[in-house]
Fold these 2 entries.
Entry 1:
Amino acid sequence: MGEIDIPASVRSIGSNAFIGQPIKSIDVSHVTSFGEGCFNLTYIQSIQLNDQVESIPMNMFAGCSKLKSINIPANVVEIGEAAFSGCKELATVTMGDKVKKIGAEAFSGCSRLEDMTISPNIEEIGKYAFSSVNYRDSDIPWFAKLPNEDGVKYVGKVAYMFTGGNDIKIKEGTLSVADCFLINHNPYGQSHPSEWGATLTLPSTLRIIGEQAFNGIPASSLTLPESLEKIGTAAFANCTNLRRATIPASVKYIGREAFYNTGLIRVYYNAVDANNEDVEDNGYDIFPESLVRVIIGEGVKSIPNSVFRECKNITRVEMPSTVESIGDYAFAGCTSLTHIDLPSSLKHLGAYAFNGCDFYEIDSYLTEPLDLMVFPDAEELKEEVDWSEGSEISGGGYRIAGPFSDIEYGFHIDADGNITFGEVSYDDNYNPVIEAGKYTYYHPLPLLRVPNGSLAAYQGDGAWSVLFQQIEQFDGASSTEAVEETTAVTVRNEVTEDTDLSSTMLGNIFVTLDTEDSGDGYNASEGCLVINSTVSDEQLAAATADDADDLTVKNQFSGLIFEVPAGKGSVIIDCQTLGQQAVYVKIGSSDARQLNAANRQQLSIPYDVAETTRIYVYAAKGSAPVASQSARAAYPNDNAVKLYGLTINVDENLSGISAPVTTDRPTTDTWYTLEGRRLVSKPTMTGVYIRNGRKVVVR
C-alpha cells in the first residue's frame, strides 16, 4: 500500500484512519477536515494540504519518520499536541500567519529540523513543543539558532524557555509564557537552580501564563499585568516565598494548583467573570492552605467553582456589591472560616459552596428573598432527561446540594411524568429515595449577623430563618453616630484580647483593623492598639467615597472612623509612632494630616465643620522620627503605631440648628464666613455663616 487514491468527493478523514499503514504517497488536496492520528506512523514523505484546513489535530503525523517537509495551510489556527512528534527526517516547516497555538510536543523528536517559519501571531505554545527525543530543545538545530535575550528564548511573541539567571524579565510585546517555561528542557520536572527567578517582571502585554511556567521560583513578590487572561495549571506552584497576590480583573481562567504550596497569606481577587468549570472535584486545589484572607474586588460578578476550596486557614471572605454567583465548592473545606460577607446582588449559591465550613457569621445585604435551592424547570426536565420507568431516582438521580451542608436535594419523575422534589435519603439497601417537600439542614448555623438597616428583611425571610438559629445586626461604618458632646475612649477600658478588631464599635467609634495579615491588634500589657497596616491613597479614596458601603470600607480601610457634629472642636490622639509609620487624620473631604510622635504623647487636631462630618484615623508611611530600637522590640515590625486612646472635644455643636435664625433688622444684614471674610449678599451655598454677629446655618 505504497500509494492510495482518495475519491475527490471525500472532504473528511476520521481519527486513526490510516494509522500504521505503509503509505508513502496520498493525495488529500481536496480534504478539508482530519481526525486525530489519521496518518500516525505512516511512511508519507510529503503531502499537500487544502488551504481550507483550519486545524492540524493531535498526532496527525506523529511518527511519520520519512516526512521531510510540510507547508501548514494558510487558514490553520492550531497545531495539536504531538502533531509532528517523532518526524525525525522533518527539516522544513512553513506556517501561515493565522496559527495561534502550538500544542505540547507538537514538534518533539524532530531532531533534523533546520528551517522553520513561525506565525507572527502565535499566542500559546505547549510544553516540550520543540524538544528532541532526549527532551533537550538545544538538540534541535532550528531552536539552537534562536537568540538568547537576557536569559530568555522567544518563539514569536511567546517566551518559550528560560536559560538561567537570578532575574526573569519578559520583554514588552510578549503575549504568552509557554508551558514549563523553566523546565522545557527537562521532561521529568527535576528542580531548576534555586536562584532562578529571584525577581520576576512580566510585561503589560501578557495574556497567557502556561502550565508550570514559574513553578518553584524563589520570587517573593508578584505583579500580574492587567492584560492577563489565563493562569495555567501549577503556574506558580511551589513558590514558597510568595506572600500576596492580586488576580487582575481580566483573568478568565485559573488552572488547578496554580498557586498550590506557595506562601500566600492574602489574595486580592478581581477577576470579573472567571470560569473554572473544568477544574474538577479531584482534590487538586488552586490556592494553598496558608491563605488567611480573601478580598473580592468591586466589579467581580462570579466566584468560580472550587477556586478557594480547602484553604483551611481562611478566616473571612469580603465581597463587594457586584457578586451575583458563587460556584460549586467555591469555599468548601475552608474549616477556619468564621465570617463571610454576602452582597444583595447574589443570585446563585452553588452546590457545596461552603460545605464543611463551620462559620458563625454571614454579613449580607438582603433586599429580597434569596432562593437557596434553585430547582430546574419541570417541563425542561421532562424534555431533556431520559428516565427509565419505575426507577426511584433514575440514573443515580439529579441532585441539587445545599450551599451550607452536604445534604442532597433532587427530584424524581415517575412513569406518568409527575415530578417530586425533596431531600434525598437512603433506604436500608442504600437506594436513594426522595422525601417529598422536605428541605432541612442537619446542623443549623447559630448566628447570622447582618448590616445596619437590613435586619427586618432577614428575620422575615424563611430561607434564612431555617438556616440560622439567631439573626442580629452587626457593627459597621454605617453604625457610627455623631458625637454630641465631649467623649473620651481609652483602649484599655474598651478592648480585651477577645475583641474582634476587624469590625467593632468602641462607643461611637468604629474600628476595623487588619488583624489577619498585617499584625494589627491589641497589646494587653500596654493597653494600646498596634497598627502595622497602612492605607494607600487609592484605598482611602474608595473608603471615603460618598457611595462607599460597609463592605467597601472594611475591604479598603484599616483604622478608626467616627463622626462629629456641625461646629468646632478638636480630636486628641494619645499615641506613639514607630519607625516610618505615622498617624494620619482625614476630616471629611479635606486632605489628611500627618502626625508623628517618637515618644508617647497626645496630639491634637482641630476641626471646624458646617455639617455632620466623618473623621478617619489611620496609619501610613511618613517622615516620622525613628524611635529607639528598644522601644520597638516588642512589636511585630519596626514600623507601627501604638494607639492608647482618643478624645473628641465638642466645643460647639450646631447640629440642632435646622433653619437660619431670623433678625429684627433685615435691612442691615451683614454676612461673614466662619473665616471672617465679609460677603456682599446673603450666601447661596449651604453651610454655617455669621449673620449680624450670630452664627446661623443656611440649608
Note: The first strand starts at residue 3 and ends at 4.
Entry 2:
Amino acid sequence: MKKKRGKRGEREARRQSSRQRQSARAKRENRRRHIPESLRSYITGTVDMKSTGKAYILPDNKDLEDVLIMPNNLGHALHGDHVRVLIFPQRSHLRHIEGQITEVLKRNKQNIVGTVEFSGKYAYLVPDSQNMPVSVILPPDSLRGAKEGQKAVARIVSWPPHLNSPIGEITAVLGEPGDNNVEMQSILAEFDFPLEYPKEALKQAQKLSGEISPKDLKERRDFRSIYTCTIDPADAKDFDDALSYRPLGDGKVEIGVHIADVSHFVKPGTPIDREAYERGTSVYLVDRTIPMLPERLCNDLCSLNPDQDRFCFSAVFEIDEQAKVLDCWIGKGIIHSNRRFTYEEAQSIIEDAGLAQSEDKTPKTKAKKTGNKQDIEAVCTMFKLSKILRDKRFKTGSINFHSQEVRFKLDPETAKPLGVYIKESKESNHLVEEFMLLANRYVAERVGKVRGKNTAKTFVYRIHDEPNPEKVSALSLFVGKLGYKMNLKSRSGLVKSFNSLLDDIRGKAEQNMIESIAIRTMAKACYSTQNIGHYGLAFPFYTHFTSPIRRYPDLMVHRLLERYLQGGSSVDQDEYEEYCQHSSDMEKRAAEAERASVKYKQAEFLLDKVGQIFSGVISGVSKWGLYVCLDENYCEGMVPLRSLNDDRYELDEDNYRVVGIHTGHTYKLGQPVRIRVAEIDMNRKQLTFSFVR
C-alpha cells in the first residue's frame, strides 16, 4: 500500500508541478497581453492561416518581418482578413516575432464552401479549405433545404465572443460531392467569384446593338479593306485581338494590332461595368470559362469574328525589314476579319515554309487547311518580323521564362480527365505575343512619356519590380549545387544568367522544379498608376491594352487612352490606384481558382490509380514532407515525413533536403524517385504518395 501511495503521490506531485508550470506560463502570457498602452506596438497586415491552426501576419509595411500568431491569439480572424496586431516583446530564443490579433479590420471572404454535417439537433458546415480552421454553425432555419453530406456555400452572420465557431447561413446548395459541376462551382464560390451573372446586367446586354452608324464611321479609321486575321486556340469562343497586314513597298509593311473596343458598349457606372469591375477578370477553370462580360458581349458584339464588321481600338505600325518601327498610329477603328486561324493552322503555315524551330511536345492536332496565297504571305511575313522583335527583346534584357501549362484531355460527357499533358508555346504563339507586347509598350509610352512642358497623366501600367537580392542569391546557391552558374554582379549579367539557366534545363528532369523556383524568386507583376517599368520584359513603359474582353484593366486603359487622345485632363491618381489594387487582387484570386481546378482534376485523374507505381522527381521540400511531380502525367503529391519509417527525418532548409538523423540518408530537391499512389483526398485536392525502393 505504501508503494501504491508513493506512486499516487508521485503522480499528484507531477500534476501539481504541471499546474504550477501552466500557471506560471499563463501569468507570463497575461503580462504580455497587458503591456502598458505607452509601450504597446501595433501593426496592420493580412492573415496567412496555416493548416496547423497557427497563422502568420504579412505586414502592410513590406519592410517588416512576418509576425507569428499562435492559435490562442487569433481571436476571430480568418485566412486573408486584414487585421490589427499587438506585437509582443521579442524573446531572444524565438526565431519569429509573435503577436496577438486585436481587431479584424476587414473580412477577406464572403463565402465559405464545405460539406453539411449534422450532430444531433445541430448542423455544421465543414469547410473544404485547409486555411479555414473552424466549422460554421448552421441554425435549423438557415439550411435552405441542405441535406447531410451535400456541398453548400455559407456566409458568416455573426461570431459571438464566447463561441469558438461563427454562426452562418446557407446561401447556395451546390449538390453532391464528386459531381463535376458541383466541384467547379465549389471552387468558384471558394474564391468568391459569383456563380451567375446579375439579371440587371444581362438585360442591359440584350438591349445593346452592334449596328454601325454614319457617325461611328466618321469617328473611326476604316481598316475593312485591309487583310486582317485572328489567331487563337482551337476552342476559343471570343476573339479580342486581330492582326492586319499590308505591304507598303520598299520592304516596308503595315502591321495593325486591333483590339476589341469594349468601351464602345460598356460605359462607366452601368450594371455591366459594375459587375465587370467586381469580377476584374475572366476565370479559366479546367473545363470552363467564367467570362468577365455577359456572353452577348464577349462572344458576339465585342468578339472580332470573321466576316463581320467590328469596332476596335488599334495600334498600327509601319515597320521595315529589320522590324524597326518607323511610325505608329493609335486610335479607334473598324475592321472586317478575313480569316480565323487556330494556332495549329498558323503553325502549319510557318512549318510548311520551313521557318519553325521548336519541337512540338503537345498532342498533334491536324490543321484543316494551310490557307491561300494571301494567308501564307501575311502569316510568314508577320512571323519573320516577330522573330526579329523577339530576338531583339532578349538581347536588350527580357527574361525568357518558358511557360508550361498543364492541360487535360476530358471526356466530353462527364469532364472526367482521360489524360494529362503540357501545353507549350510555339512559333504561332510567339507571333501573336510579340505584336501584343509591341502594342502594349507603345500605348504606355504614348501616355507615359513626358513631352515638352506637359506632365505625365495618370495611367494604368503593368509593372514588375526588381527581384529580392536575397531570393536571387538563394536561387544561385541552389542551382550551383546542381551544376549551374549565375552571375549576380549586374542586371545584364543576372538576366543573361536567367536566360542561360532556362535554356540549359529545358528537357531535363529538373526543368519544372527550377522554373518554379526561378519564377517564385521574381517579384509579382501587378497593376499600378506608379510606373516603375517592367523588369522581366525590360520595358520602361508597359501596360495591358490587348484583352479588354477578359481583363478590366485593359478596359480602363482604353477609356483613359481615348480621353487623353482627345485632349482630356488627367484623372484622379488615388482613385485609379485603388482600381489597380482591386484588379491585381482579382487577378491573383483567379489564378488561385484556376490552380485549384487543376489540382482537383489531377486528383480525379489519379483516383482510380491508387496503389499504382510511378516515376517522378522531388519538386518541393518542407518540414511536413516531400513533394513529388510525376514524370508521366505531371501530377504533384506529397510523401509525408511521418510515413518514412526507416528513420526520423529533419529539414535542411538551406540545402533543399531532408536528412535522416540516425542514418544520414537524404532526400533532396530534384532527386528522381519512384512512388506509389497511397491516398487521394478529393475534398482537399490532396495526393498522398509513398516511396518505393
Note: The chain has a mean pLDDT of 89.
